[in-house]
Specification:
Layout: H1 9-15, E1 20-21, E2 24-28, E3 35-41, E4 44-50, H2 56-72, E5 78-84, E6 93-94, H3 113-116, H4 127-130, E7 137-141, H5 149-162, E8 167-171, H6 179-183, E9 190-192, E10 195-197, E11 199-201, E12 204-208, H7 215-218, H8 223-235, E13 244-248, H9 255-263, E14 268-273, H10 277-292, E15 297-308, E16 315-316, H11 323-331, E17 335-341, H12 343-350, H13 355-358, H14 363-388
Parallel strand pairs: 4-5, 7-13, 7-14, 8-12, 8-13, 14-15, 15-17
Antiparallel strand pairs: 1-2, 3-4, 5-6, 9-10, 11-12, 15-16
Helix pairs in contact: 5-14, 8-9
The chain binds adenosine-5'-triphosphate.
């Protein structure tokens, strides 16, 4: 077996050594001091070109050429180049167009996860066997859709991995699996010894139904199929040893939550809510469901807590002030922290680069980091509790 080619900054510089700026042909790209936020992760590379002083249109051909050249480097599996059109607080990232979906994808008959791998059959086991080396399982949930549950799960997962934990992220949002896209994961899932192998990105392992079926199928699943898909995700994935498995659940209190809580021991749930009344109302329903299943509520995260003006840092409480914090206090649950409403969280997710990896010094990344630091001792406590509990038989 050949070992993967090692990619480093020197490799990148070599590849770009003959590039000049289209708007200043005598200036070499490497001398122009416009390359920033270079992130090399294994065989993946992301970087930004700061083009504050030139129009976007003039810079796009350079961006495309640089990205193309990086993709040619031996061993690179993914290269993405972004443009940054501003300076300081006015930064605005411009993202490369994503690859167009296959023209006939919509006409393809949806495949089940088993069909997607029919040449390498998957042998189902029970969830307990598949998850036996997972030390702690935490669900990330919300009552309402679109409040930022997946963004929170992803950024917490990467932050926890940055602190040295072995982290897995299972995207159980079978209706709208956004984790692969938000982590920049593409390509086919590997099957080894009849088990699905999680993909890796930004230091975490991830598995999602979105990696196994065409996107259009996710929207049309109903009851029993959903339960089957969740059970398959629980039984057929080879996570290996994990300190923590975060499970990104769909919004609400439906079949997925029911199947999860009935099939495996979830050690705790983190509830994500915006400060808004209607989101909090739904969050309360989500909390009630976990309580009914005897899953401890570990705390509430307030997402989109405020908008911080990039020019003057003034905070605007778009969805109300401290709603989730007050709710946590009223209900007697820990308040885990607040995440501001920041365009970079959205734009990073759109190109598969979580904000904690893209800009670790940003206020949003620091907010996720603080929450993950709070979680570490909780995870340790839950790990001990889980180890001391005798596994119960799982209803199949
Ligand atoms: N703090 C934030 N600041 C800016 N954008 C955010 C923030 N949190 C989430 N978003 C964006 O809001 C959208 C919804 O977020 P996300 O998909 O994480 O929510 P969700 O609750 O998981 O949604 P769904 O119910 O569809 O599963 C995404 O485009 C995401 O990038």
């Amino acid at each position: 077996m050949t070992s993967p080619v090692s990619i480093n900054q020197q490799t990148i510089h070599q590849a770009l050594s003959d590039f000049t700026l289209p708007w200043s042909p005598n200036t070499r790209l490497l001398d122009a001091n416009i390359i920033e936020n270079m992130i090399i992760e294994g065989q993946k590379i992301h970087l930004t070109l700061n083009i504050a002083k030139v129009p976007e249109d003039a810079a796009e051909p350079l961006r495309a050429k640089v990205e193309h050249r990086l993709q040619q480097i031996e061993g690179i599996v993914q290269a993405r180049v972004f443009l940054n059109t501003g300076e300081g607080n006015n930064k605005r990232l411009v993202f490369p167009p994503r690859q167009a979906a296959s023209a006939n994808a919509a006409q393809q008959k949806p495949a089940t996860p088993h069909q997607a791998h029919k040449h390498a059959p998957i042998k189902p086991t029970g969830p307990i066997e598949a998850l036996q080396d997972v030390k702690c399982i935490i669900a990330v949930a919300s009552g309402k859709g679109g409040v930022g549950k997946s963004s929170t799960a992803i950024n917490l997962a990467v932050s926890l991995a940055n602190q040295g934990l072995k982290v897995g992220l299972m995207d159980a949002d079978v209706y709208g699996p956004s984790v692969p896209h938000m982590l920049g994961l593409e390509g086919q899932v590997e099957v080894i010894n009849h088990k699905l192998i999680p993909m890796t990105a930004w230091g975490i392992s991830a598995m999602s139904i979105g990696m196994l079926v065409p996107p259009e199928q996710a929207l049309i699943w109903r009851g029993p199929m959903v339960m089957g898909a969740i059970k398959q995700l629980l039984s057929d994935v080879k996570w290996g040893e994990l300190d923590i498995l975060l499970v990104d659940t769909p919004p609400g209190t439906g079949d997925v939550q029911l199947t999860l809580t009935q099939s495996i021991q979830i050690d705790g749930a983190i509830i994500v809510s915006t400060p808004q009344d209607v989101a909090l109302l739904d969050a309360r329903r989500g909390i009630a469901m976990f309580q009914k299943a005897k899953t401890p509520i570990l705390g509430i995260v307030e997402n989109m807590a405020y908008f911080s003006c990039p020019c003057c840092n003034e905070k605007t409480y778009i969805f109300g002030e401290n709603g989730a914090k007050k709710e946590a206090n009223n209900l007697g649950f820990p308040f885990l922290g607040e995440i501001p409403l920041i365009p970079a969280i959205r734009s990073g997710a759109d190109v598969g680069v979580p904000i904690v990896a893209q800009d670790p010094d940003s206020i949003a990344a620091k907010a996720y980091q603080e929450i993950s630091e709070l979680m570490v001792p909780v995870i340790k406590r839950l790990t001990v509790q889980r180890a001391n509990k005798k596994p119960e038989a799982t209803p199949e």
